[in-house]
Amino acid sequence: MRRDQLDVSDIELSKQCFRLSQGAFESGSPWQEEQFLSTIKNPSNTNCFLFNQDKLVGYILLSTVLDEADLLLIGVAKEEQRKNIGQKLLQEACLELDQKEVKKIFIEVRQSNSKAISFYQKNGFVEIAKRRNYYQTPKEDALIWMLEL
């Protein structure tokens, strides 16, 4: 669902994204509410949200610059995982990015995050590089993945 189709304030949406992330990620939300709010309010970003009635069940947030996008964060409610919601969100985002003439999407993933790596491989991303010690808590390499649209 595109941002302009939502009947919810930016502040409420950022709170919902944060709450969803608290349960969706093993170590809790990687972002604070303020980071969600800043990303949601940025008009150059491409953000897609999926609701089941009035409850947020997933989001994908991307930063776009010229013909490239960085996938900043994707989250699916824990009870909704393994139901292709992440894939639906990625497909919706790709359609919107195509309209903006974006050619490539990049994502950084912890080397140990096999669940995310499997998701990106399944959706056509290819590993293109490694950033040593990119993550600090705990210290770990990041793998850079790219999808050509």
TrEMBL record:
SUPFAM superfamilies: Acyl-CoA N-acyltransferases (Nat). InterPro entries: AcTrfase_RimI/Ard1, Acyl_CoA_acyltransferase, GNAT_dom, YpeA/RimI_acetyltransf. Residues 6-149 form the N-acetyltransferase domain. GO terms for molecular function: protein-N-terminal-alanine acetyltransferase activity. Gene3D superfamilies: 3.40.630.30. Signal peptide: none annotated. It comes from the Bacteria. The keyword Transferase applies. Its EC number is 2.3.1.266. Keywords: Acyltransferase, Cytoplasm, Ribonucleoprotein, Ribosomal protein, Transferase. It is found in: Cytoplasm. PROSITE patterns: GNAT (PS51186). One of its GO terms (cellular component) is ribosome. It catalyses: N-terminal L-alanyl-[ribosomal protein bS18] + acetyl-CoA = N-terminal N(alpha)-acetyl-L-alanyl-[ribosomal protein bS18] + CoA + H(+). Belongs to the acetyltransferase family. RimI subfamily. Acetylates the N-terminal alanine of ribosomal protein bS18. This is [Ribosomal protein bS18]-alanine N-acetyltransferase. It comes from Vagococcus hydrophili. The gene is rimI.
